[in-house]
Design a protein that fits this description.
Layout lengths: L9 H5 L10 E9 L16 E11 L8 E9 L4 E5 L3 E4 L18 E9 L1 H7 L5 E9 L2 H12 L6 H14 L6 E7 L2 H4 L3
Antiparallel strand pairs: 1-2, 2-6, 3-4, 3-7, 4-5, 7-8
Helix pairs in contact: 3-4
């Protein structure tokens, strides 16, 4: 997780930045409080009584539930550097090409999935982003029946393109289609209060 927000998913999540999809959202939750504080039970974000936070991102498939597809989560620094997140490997640097999905291809997308994409102090979150402010995005994309047929047709030809690669291309295109409402900004974090503006 050291490379957390060094670099994120350009194509899948940034094209529709600012277009918040209906169900995508994130919650910053305090999971460990400091002992001895008078407001021990408080869940106030940014208060001095919380020691450990979790950033939980929920990605929904909305009306596409049950369709074949994938979920995506990524982040972008103010500098423009990007990263993607996978449940198996945490945060990774995005360099180019297709964005890796969070947890692979689903033959039938669940209605929603929640992922813990950060666990630690606010200071450590800002250290992972190189003390820069950042934004987190979430998306889902599907493989339509028509595109699924195209994948099957291509597999019947002699080609070096795998079915998995073609599925990922079509799913990413669906997630990033203009005005699709399938990708959006779910969380922003300002590190200037901890380390000064960057």
């Amino acid at each position: 997780m050291v490379i957390f927000l060094r670099i994120l998913m350009a194509g899948m999540l940034l094209i529709t930045a600012g277009t918040v999809s209906a169900g995508q959202f994130a919650d910053m939750v305090c999971v460990k409080y400091r002992l001895g504080m008078s407001d021990y039970g408080s869940n106030t974000i940014g208060g001095d009584n919380c020691e450990i936070y979790e950033l939980r991102v929920t990605v929904t498939s909305d009306a596409d539930a049950g369709q074949p597809g994938a979920f995506g989560i990524g982040a972008q620094l103010n500098s423009g550097a990007m990263a993607y997140w996978t449940a198996a490997g945490g945060w990774g640097a995005f360099k180019s090409g297709l964005v890796p999905p969070v947890d692979g291809y689903y033959p039938a997308l669940p209605a929603s999935q929640t992922y813990v994409v950060f666990h630690g102090s606010l200071a450590s979150m800002c250290e992972m982003s190189g003390r820069q402010n950042f934004r987190v995005y979430a998306a889902h994309g599907i493989l339509t029946a028509q595109k699924g047929k195209t994948v099957q047709d291509l597999q019947e030809l002699t080609t070096n393109i795998t079915a998995d690669h073609m599925r990922r291309v079509f799913i990413q295109m669906d997630a990033t289609a203009r005005n699709s409402g399938k990708a959006g900004l779910v969380y922003t974090h300002d590190c200037s209060g901890i380390f000064g503006a960057y």
